[in-house]
Specification:
The chain is an alpha+beta fold. Helix content is 22%, strand content 38%.
């Protein structure tokens, strides 16, 4: 009997797909092919489906339009364990010198390592699997793939990128749009609250006020304010479902906005933060204060941002009053030790794709304890230590944020992580450091989508 490896190249002449790398999975019954923009239609009285295949992982410049007759629909559990209905087509697959008729479910596999999964239904009676080896039927080198797909590559006249936010006149949003346009991309501002979605297995959509369909973007840059986190992240999940790359994912933004959950993640991953306490009952307030070394201490709303919802309590009595007042209106808060030696200073590191591209020191206005620029703090360029750099990169990685503003405070115990912002402002740090951060964000999208100017 013939032998295949754990990964093989498959060809689909009938679909017009010259080669796609498939993970061989004998534990899965059904085979699946990556597909976006799936739309059913009727042809000669039968149900057909149109779809788009991006056969090379992380490369949307290569796109193949396909259509095939639907042979059935199957309810299949995705990687999250959620059942969803998928179209099934039947076509001929070439595997090395072998031609096999296979059923393929069409699924969005953008988050998967391989664009195709080859299930046992397609090979169990024809091949044995040697999981220790790969490409036993055919090996195609990277240079060969480039030649094979040369004629399929889209002419690159720029990407279509949207900034998903609330205020088009904010410095950060304007700078991002300017930077994208300067690099030859079509930039669009989308107001979160003017966007709405159609949830449908066959033809999901996002629409904009007036009925315009927003299904043709290459990438989304989310700049979602805290008040619309829930709805903004729902839109991001819908864009992801449509095959659009989001610079920060909905899941990453959601967990970064939940300060308690984020703090727990940091503790689990050995990232040092100021001693922090959380309790539900007013009966525990006194011990909660003692637990964080007493006053002065910081009281934070769980979803505070940009210094809003953050209070300094200078005495234990004041701390008790503020904590119990918050609890009386059923508001969740964190209680955190106050780092006196920081003297109103902190460091903002701007991280893009695992690299700190700019850092500034922020000094609070006299009499204030928070160093936020928009609240009167002053910014200056600073050279961070290697320990601070590693801390910033690790914190962003733990939350899976491609773009993050990481706030660090220097203490007698070494650098401590204050918080991580998933929509960090650009104005203060660009002006303080002279670094073109907006351009860096656009370049990050280009690298992810393998875009290069012709």
């Amino acid at each position: 009997m013939n032998v295949i490896g754990s990964v093989e190249w498959c060809r689909f002449d009938q679909l017009g797909v010259p080669a796609v790398k498939a993970r061989v999975d004998s534990g899965a019954k059904t085979s699946a092919l990556q597909a976006n923009k799936i739309k059913p239609f009727i042809k000669d009285g039968q149900e057909w489906v149109k779809f788009e295949v991006n056969p090379i992982q992380d490369n949307r410049s290569i796109s193949i339009n396909c259509e095939e007759r639907v042979v059935s629909k199957r309810v299949i559990k995705n990687t999250s364990g959620i059942a969803e209905e998928r179209f099934v087509i039947r076509t001929t697959m070439q595997l090395g010198d072998h031609y096999i008729d296979v059923n393929l479910t069409l699924a969005n596999r953008d988050s998967m390592e391989y664009r195709m999964l080859l299930g046992r239904e397609a090979f169990s009676d024809k091949f044995l699997v040697d999981v220790s080896k790969q490409f036993l039927q055919e090996e195609i080198e990277e240079e060969q793939i480039k030649k094979i797909y040369q004629s399929y590559t889209k002419e690159q006249n720029g990407l279509r990128i949207a900034v998903l936010a609330s205020n088009p006149n904010l410095y950060s949003n304007k700078r991002i749009i300017e930077a994208g346009e300067a690099r030859g991309h079509e930039m669009v501002f989308l107001n979160v609250e003017h966007s709405y979605m159609k949830l449908d297995a066959n033809s999901p959509q996002i629409r904009y006020r007036g009925g315009n369909i927003l299904n043709q973007f290459d990438a989304i840059i989310p700049r979602i304010k805290p008040a619309v986190t829930f709805y903004g992240c729902a839109l991001l999940r819908q864009f992801k479902h449509l095959g659009v790359y989001c610079l920060n994912s909905a899941d990453a933004i959601t967990q970064s906005r939940d300060k308690l959950f984020a703090s727990q993640l940091f503790s689990e991953n050995d990232i040092h933060i100021p001693t922090t306490g959380f309790a539900k009952s007013p009966m525990d307030t006194k011990d909660l204060i003692r637990m964080v070394n007493g006053a002065p201490l910081i009281i934070k709303l769980l979803e505070s941002t940009q210094g809003k919802g953050v209070v300094l309590a200078e005495t234990n009595k004041a701390a008790e009053s503020v904590i119990n007042a918050f609890k009386s209106v059923k508001t969740n808060i964190l209680v955190q030790e106050f780092i006196k030696e920081a003297n109103g200073q902190d460091i903002r590191c701007f991280v893009i794709n695992g690299k700190v591209i700019a850092s500034m020191q922020r000094q609070a206005e006299k009499g204030e304890f928070r160093a936020n620029i928009h609240q009167g703090g002053k910014a200056s360029i600073i050279k961070i230590t290697s320990e601070e750099r590693k801390l910033a990169i690790k914190a962003a990685k733990i939350l899976n944020l491609a773009v993050a503003g990481v706030d660090i405070i220097r203490s007698n115990k070494g650098p401590l992580l204050l918080e991580v912002n998933s929509s960090p402002g650009l104005e203060g740090i660009e002006k303080a450091t002279g670094v073109d951060i907006a351009n860096g964000m656009i370049q990050a999208i280009e690298r992810k989508l393998k875009y290069s100017k012709s």
